[in-house]
Design a protein that fits this description.
Layout: E1 20-22, E2 26-27, E3 31-36, H1 42-55, E4 71-75, H2 80-93, E5 103-105, H3 116-129, E6 133-137, H4 150-167, E7 170-176, H5 186-189, H6 195-199, E8 202-209, E9 212-219, E10 225-235, E11 238-243, H7 261-271, H8 278-285, H9 289-301, E12 305-308, E13 311-314
Parallel strand pairs: 3-7, 3-8, 4-5, 4-6, 6-7
Antiparallel strand pairs: 1-2, 8-9, 9-10, 10-11, 12-13
Helix pairs in contact: 1-2
């Protein structure tokens, strides 16, 4: 018996607004990794996503939630009172109470996705709760396998992909990067098998340089973003991640010495008293026109830079 086929022009179309769970941050029903080295706030970012989807409020107060709904969370490394405290702080930063966020927390002490019984129990819980987003934090606490062995990692990731397809749920897995891998591309820095990077539809990678956090956003089927500055806000005992500002250059640092083209553009515009035309901006950034135009397009889409009749400026 032959396989079913269809002319390409008869395939269903998906409206652009239906292609995102969190616009520009996480695709609808995507599986993927929230990755980074230790102490890069990976868990905070995963909880920010959880609160945003569960409440319908913009993630990080910037990224619009297109498909709000219930969230199922398993936080394996933190005591339950710590999970509540962190969720409380994120809710307060968004002007919410924790009751406003439809989040169910899995409270079992262990969950091993290399064990058939635990896989079945998680699948049953997803079927019962019907979450829009499933957050598992971190991967290292979900198994007793060798993370470097593709043949052992792949079945667990395939199981999570099956959950996504069967229950139409997005899945975000927090996973560690290798220590000292901060200068590698996000997916290449992940600890263990290359299966992790290949698996994700949407991936978020956090890096830290001193006190400065940076977020890289990667999608399988949409535009990626190289570097979004973040910082951890403190208000009493409450903590939340917030989109950051570009740090000020010191006298000893030249524009050309900045690590990324994105940073160069932001610093030059921050120092400018008025909007800069393209030619002048290119000269101050010491950058090729093609590279500058690419960065300006990215920063404009991210609502960090605006184009005016007089030139380019930071979005106030």
């Amino acid at each position: 018996m032959s396989l079913d086929t269809s002319p390409a022009w008869q395939l269903d179309e998906q409206p652009v607004t239906d292609s995102w769970l969190i616009e520009d941050l996480w695709a609808a029903q995507a599986v993927g990794i929230v990755g980074g080295e230790p102490k890069c706030c990976k868990s905070f970012l995963a909880l920010e996503m959880a609160v945003a989807v569960a409440s319908g409020q913009p993630c990080l107060r910037r990224f619009t939630v297109r498909a709000p709904g219930p969230v199922l969370l398993y936080a394996a490394e933190d005591a339950l009172h710590v999970v509540r405290q962190r969720l409380d702080g994120i809710c307060r930063a968004s002007g919410l109470t924790l009751r406003d966020a439809d989040i169910e927390v899995i409270t079992v002490p262990t969950l091993r996705l290399d064990q058939p019984e635990d896989r079945r129990r998680l699948a049953d819980t997803v079927a019962l709760r019907e979450p829009r987003l499933l957050v598992l934090d971190p991967f290292v606490r979900l198994h007793r396998i060798d993370e470097n062995a593709s043949g052992e990692v792949a079945p667990i990731l395939a199981y999570l992909r099956d959950l996504q397809r069967l229950h139409k749920v997005a899945v975000a897995v927090v996973h560690h990067a290798r220590k000292g891998a901060g200068r590698l591309r996000g997916g290449q820095a992940l600890r263990g098998s290359s299966e992790f990077h290949a698996w994700g539809d949407s991936n978020l990678y956090l890096t830290r340089q001193g006190e400065q956090l940076a977020l890289a956003i990667e999608h399988r089927a949409a535009r990626s973003t190289e570097r979004v500055p973040l910082h951890l806000d403190t208000a009493g005992a409450a903590l939340s991640l917030t989109l950051g500002t570009v740090p000020t250059l010191t006298a000893a640092t030249s524009v050309a010495a900045l690590e990324t083209p994105r940073d160069r553009v932001c610093h030059v515009l921050a120092d400018a008293a008025e909007p800069l035309p393209l030619g002048e901006l290119r000269a101050r950034c010491h950058m090729r026109t093609a590279t500058l135009c690419e960065m300006l397009g990215e920063l404009t889409r991210d609502k960090i830079v605006v184009r005016t009749a007089a030139g380019y400026a930071l979005d106030a």
